[in-house]
Amino acid sequence: MAQGTFSVAGRQVVVVGAARSGLAAAELLRRRGARVTLTESRPSFAESAALEAAGVRVETGGHQAATLAEADLVVVSPGVPLEQPVFEAARARGVEIIGELEMAWRWLKGKVIAVTGTKGKSTTTTLIGRMLSAAGRHVLVGGNIGVPISAQVEESTDRTLHVVEVSSFQLSTTTTFRPWVAVWLNLSDDHLDRHASFQEYGDAKARIFANQVPSDFAVVNADDPAVAKYSGQSFATRVWFSLTGKPNEGYVIDNGWIGRKTPSGFERLVPVGAVRLPGSHMLGNVIAATAAANLAGAAAGPMEQAVRGFAGLEHVMEPAGDIGKVRFVNDSKATNVGAARKSIESYDSRVVAIIGGRYKSGDLGELKGAMAGRGRAVVAIGEAAPRVEAAMAGALPVVRAASMAEAVARAYDAAGDEGVVLLAPACASFDWFSDYAERGRSFKEEVARLKARVEKS
Fold it and tell me: What integer pLDDT is reported at residue 92 of this predicted model?
């Protein structure tokens, strides 16, 4: 199917899931002439009345097999697992089942720069968007970060560059999605509560390359063997990026500069000194963003300007305040073991890590190695607290906390006169909070409360 030729006029389309992307998909489908039913597992949701007023039929309290079986097309939100009996009748009738990303892609007029990976997607996506905006391009940033792509279709022009964060869940429901520039940052255990295996998770990520052609670009982390291996399946022009400088060609660091190495020399693009983000993994994200933006036409000046003006995202290695010589850092978005390990390894010593939540997957024992030599203590929180204790056994002190307020207070006590208190949960947030953002805000609020008490005493 050619991009831009998709039509749903007069077709019966069922949208499954009333999260942000589902709502945006339903609204777009209705504007494009479809007869739309949106189904939601919750008994009610705030936006239902507005959808019905716009002509969308709403079903709540569960997804009905009969409704899906009558559809001409089913569009599934990323949070909805496809391995459910409710989809069987639709599949048996040959009904196409796609995700919101795939649907929106079919109507986009502009080119797509897509970013995936286990860690660093949001930071890299945002920075690419800032670089290209600084270069004077018409840029829309969205996808798994911020605005669903369905909400950007009407703004899309032939000059638009869509910079899109894409998750494994979104990619697993694509069939024709073809980014002009596809960036794959890294791959480690995550979401194995939804994916049947690490292989299945990696295969879903690899769909970012599935429909690319030689005129497209696959921007690949040369330092990640799994990503490098998967990239061999792509027909796109492969472009390496590396923090270690391993590849003979690609985007690397040389003598204090991020730049492009070619057989004829090294082109300086962004000085490393311009980077304001902490940790080597963050520097790797900047190299990847530089590669993607440069391939899309951004020159050195605008890219450096964007890097100098970017201090990072909320809940991603975010400074959360100081109490004396104890620093507090909010990395609530580190919801898997690999991300938490990178966070911990950003500091050389005196780390007190707050770890836990709802366990998803991965070996928490990896964090024991990361804390060795640099950690003072661990505060274990949430449902995963017993797992955290077992993983850290014999390495360093572990204390439990029954609330975020208690976790912050215990971590501050463990830090002593100087150190870093790091919220690096390695787990989902859904035991105590609605999402990682609420968890991060709670952490920052408790740090502010503790600071006020300490300074008052």
Answer: 86
Hey, how many other C-beta atoms are within 10 angstroms of the C-beta on 83? 7
| Residue with tokens 């060795």, as numbered in its chain | 372
pLDDT for residue 196: 58
pLDDT at residue number 198: 81
Buried b (16+ CB within 10 A) or exposed e, 433-447: beebeebbbbbbebb
pLDDT band at 429 (very low <50, low <70, confident <90, very high): very high
Q: How far apart are CA 319 and CA 329, in angstroms?
A: 5
Q: How far apart are CA 113 and CA 293, in angstroms?
A: 9
Average pLDDT, the chain: 93
The string of pLDDT tens digits covering residues 50-84 is 999 999 999 999 898 889 989 999 999 887 888 78
Measured in whole angstroms, the distance separating CA 309 from the mean position of its chain's CA atoms is: 21
Where do the H-state alpha helices sit in 86-167? 88-92, 100-105, 121-134
What is the percentage of the chain residues whose pLDDT exceeds 70?
Answer: 97
Domains and CATH numbers, the chain: 12-99 (3.40.50.720), 108-308 (3.40.1190.10), 318-456 (3.90.190.20)
The Cα 75–Cα 367 span in angstroms is 38
Describe the strand order of the beta sheet including 257-262 as a list of residue ranges: 138-143, 160-165, 111-116, 181-184, 217-221, 237-241, 250-254, 257-262, 265-271
Predicted confidence (pLDDT) per residue in 284-330, tens digit: 999 999 999 999 999 999 999 999 999 988 999 999 999 999 999 99
Which of helix, strand or coil describes residue 58?
A: strand
> Three-class SS of residue 384?
coil
Give yes or no for residue 87 having a pLDDT over 90: no
Tally of CA atoms within 13 A in the half-sphere of 116 that contains its CB: 28
| DSSP classification of residue 444 | H
Phi-psi sector, 242: left (phi>0), alpha (psi -120 to 50), beta:
beta
| Whole-Å CA distances, 46 to 19, 23, 49, 80 | 11, 11, 7, 19
Strand order in the sheet with 96-99: 57-59, 35-39, 12-16, 73-76, 96-99
Q: Cα dihedral angle (36, 42, 44, 45), rounded to 10 degrees?
A: -70
- Cα separation, 263 vs 110, in Å, equals 32
Question: Is there a contact between 224 and 187 (Cβ–Cβ < 8 Å)?
Answer: yes
